[in-house]
Amino acid sequence: MAEMWFVIVAVLFVGYFLLEGFDFGVGMLMPIVGRRTDIPPDVRRRVVLNTIGPVWDGNEVWLITAGGALFAAFPDWYATLFSGFYLPLLLILVALILRIVAIEWRAKIDDDNWRRRCDWGIVFGSWVPAVLWGVAFANIVRGVEIDAQKQVVSSLFDLLNPYALLGGVTTAVVFALHGAVFLALKSADEIREDAVAIAARLAIPAVPIAGAFVLWTQIAYGKGWTWILVGLAAAALLGVVVFTRDEKEGRAFALTSIAVVSTATLLFASLFPNVMPSTLDPAYNLTIANASSSPYTLTVMTWVAAFMTPVVILYQAWTYWVFRQRISSTAIGQSHGLKWAGRS
Amino acid sequence: MDALDLSRWQFGITTVYHFVLVPLTIGLAPMVAIMQTMWMITGKDSWYRLTKFFGKLLLINFALGVATGIVQEFQFGMNWSEYSRFVGDVFGAPLAMEGLVAFFLESTFLGLWIFGWERLPRGVHLATIWLVAIGVNASGYFIVVANSFMQHPVGAEYNAESGRAQLTSIGDLLSNNTALVAYPHVIAGAFLTAGTFVAGISGWWMVRTMRRGREQDARELFRPAARLALLVMIVAGVAVAWTGDSQGKLMFVQQPMKMASAESLCNTETDPDFSVLTIGTHNNCDSVTSVIELPFVLPFLAEGKFSGVTLQGVNQLQEQYEQEFGPGNYTPNLFVTYWSFRMMIGLAAGSAALALAGLWVTRRGRVPDQRWYSWLALIAIPMPFLANSAGWIFTEMGRQPWMVHPNPTGVDMIRLTVDQGVSGHSAATVWISIVTFTLLYGALGVVWLKLMIRYAKEGPMDHDRTPPDPAEPKQLSFEY
Fold first, then answer.
1. A2-298: what CATH class?
2. What is the ipTM of this complex?
3. B432, A293: Cβ pair inside 8 Å?
């Protein structure tokens, strides 16, 4: 039962990276997409934001639910991880807060300074978590100094080791690529062309960077069967290079999705059967067995998850279907934001 | 200050802040859904304009509520990791359910509502805002269930081997009688807040449009909104008083120390007077001097009788707890509990004043143009927000020093004090986060307030005059 919950937690995080991965990428690239066109800057930015408009908030709930599932199914994992990674998580929280309000409030005020500040919030709020989730998950797989009381005693600088930093660069590049391809799929005319071009250029460094990270993960922490995931991730990214050059963004998006899913799955598979290994003494490892809740709690939560998850996936998929059209810069109407100075 | 005090301050600051925003969302989402339903039923464009007008205010508020909500889930693990280990088996379940059942629903369908005006058939689009309303109200239930376990732990046993609380019955946890009275109280408070918000803004607009000779707007646009909101306020106001009373009666049994400290009732007394006003620092029992007192009220609050009720005092409870749980200070901060209890009730009176005055000035088709009414309408708006905060400050500070308050008839070992629950951080680490959150929340709070005021003052916009027709999509509107 506890092992199944390990899988459920993994699915929730993989789902989170798959979905929020592209909307982080869209936010990361917002300032530069369409720069080489003659579309006015605010119009192209609004095209970019509206591609994720109806869906990004629902994507973020995958994180909230993953956090809740971690708390319910593995209280020790939740407690050790969240208290042990205190300052990085603080930074992620600040970034996510700024990102949410910047996206939602940007169009509310018709003022260039206001929009500039919101854009800054969106870019900062997308880059920081995109890097830090990679750093955090690489450290979880690598192990941190956990003592006999299940407390993380590593310093902040221990978390900035080469493997974890490579993990951070990998998630940043892969999310940016994933976002660029999504943008190509959801926008029209010159914005689409520029997004494809950016994706094609990002795909080239993504192959060696992500390739090095998955290979390092596999060799240092992987299992025999996880070579399949390494192969999938590498092949998918190579495919993205080809498809983005041929401007086939639909296929490219399928492949960036495979790359994100197989990389994230590789991390969880490498972790198994631990949930947070200790670098001090393997006896202090947090494992699926010693960090999980009681069988009763896990049974209850299994029923809830078994009923609710398919429903959630169904209505979220429907949302993507409803908003399947490409967004063109000509469709962007006048902003209805207010000026700060009111009418009398 | 040490890490414990800082963590408590941080939790207090972030939670009170979050709960300024949440009640408005909980109450306003269904009210906007009602407005949109009225538009569908009556076909009047005025209801459409109101839906869009209050919908924009809802969205501005919703964004900051969501943003500050993530912190809530994370900080149990970040600052209260030992608490999380102790109760995770029980407490994590409602939080995970909240995500799966409520948060996915509200966020996904809110996206559909915002962007779906031209793309969804009208009936389907109406359903999306109702699902948002259901989602936000459902999330409140799960979080109150989680909180009620801290006030009155049920449905769990103590596992001596692991030293942790362990869930034994999800049904008992979800039907905790503490939650069953607290949830309606919280929801009634939320509807009172949103009702006051809508009645306040519409009331101000009624007077303004009347005085500027736009009687048609006042009569056909703002008066219906105000009447709807006044109705919500009356129902919610009665509900909040009634559920508050039941909650109080339960607290006298389940958490006698909390109720004794609400009254700063130092010594056990039969038929004590209800204290309306006291002076003194309340640091300890000697520093409290009662100025105004009323008979009969307190026995009624506790047991629904006017006399013959003996209530336990702080001093006696302190002695009793020391014998039961070992040496320690089991008395909450009396100044905070005494005054927050009175603030909660007193501030709710602001809404009552507006509701009664509002019904009077709008009676039998009248539309008010009196200046005093527009002032009253504005002044009343913040009051229920402050009452909500005071209520939570009371119930959480009254629980101190317990994180999980022992259930007098429950499992003996399921209890935890704050010093046992806190993470082992250095004070410096928590200083970093508390300063960060305070500055960030402060800045965003200013922006939130400016946006809310700006949009409320703008009123319904001209471009929202004609409803969209999904059958004939004109230019699609992109909300970002």
1. mainly alpha
2. 0.93
3. no
